[in-house]
Specification:
Distance between the termini: 7 Å
Number of helices: 4
Low-confidence stretches: none
Shape: globular
Strand order of the largest sheet: 3-2-1-4-5-8-6
Order of helices and strands: EHEEEHEEEEEHH
Structural class: alpha/beta
Bound molecules: S-adenosylmethionine
Length: 192
């Protein structure tokens, strides 16, 4: 299958598909962390290149429920933040409406303020072998729900200060955004 991993610099999902024999490429404004097929640039440059499947991880900073607290600092609507959220929604919707037969878009729970379509399922790292909680929503087009592969008991919040998830100094944000390997492997095994 020809697989596009949109908004991915880590190569995690890309390499999970390649390991299963697929023709996968990642795309991000950033260079890829791990050598492999990667387009560094705007995802919209390559969206129409006859992909069979796209898995996308668009930026969530301005759309997520967590980010929404910045919309009303001291009870007053922050117009600049609202504009950024609306732009992020347009970016997200462009990916969801792309002319690709099968699509998965992954993001945290969105703020209702932006009126995104309802996601199809939520998943957690602890359902895929990682002892962490990080509720993640999937919007699916022509794909079955992702099935849990390995439930683990310990379910530490990714927000706990000082745990490995929050380590990493200047790369903390980048590390936090990286897709969990167990989720990437499940996507490749079940959707590839
Ligand atoms: C939340 S991170 C996703 C990281 C991903 N889970 C991974 O493992 O690499 C969102 C990514 O979207 C990228 N991005 C933002 N705008 C983009 C665009 N127009 N085209 C391609 N990538 C974009 C950012 O550079 C950022 O790396």
């Amino acid at each position: 299958m020809k697989v596009l991993i949109a908004c991915e610099y880590s190569g995690t999902v890309r390499d999970a598909f390649i390991a299963r024999g697929h023709d996968a490429m990642s795309c991000d404004l950033l260079p890829t962390d791990v050598t492999g097929p990667h387009y560094q640039g705007d995802i919209y440059d390559i969206l129409d290149n006859d992909w069979d499947l796209m898995i996308a991880h668009p930026p969530c900073t301005y759309l997520s429920n967590a980010g929404a607290v910045h919309l009303y600092p001291k009870g007053v609507l922050n117009q600049a933040r609202l504009k950024q959220g609306l732009e992020a929604k347009e970016f997200f919707m462009g990916l969801l409406m792309a002319k690709i037969p099968q699509i998965c878009i992954e993001n945290p729970v969105p703020s209702t303020i932006f009126g995104l379509p309802k996601y199809h399922q939520t998943i957690q790292p602890y359902e895929f072998g990682h002892p962490f909680q990080k509720k993640t929503c999937l919007w699916l087009k022509n794909l079955p729900p992702l099935m849990a592969t390995m439930h683990v008991q310990k379910q530490e919040s990714t927000k706990v200060p000082g745990n490995w998830f929050n380590a990493g100094g200047k790369d903390r944000q980048k590390n936090r955004a990286k897709t969990f390997q167990g989720i990437a492997d499940a996507m490749a095994a079940q959707w590839g």
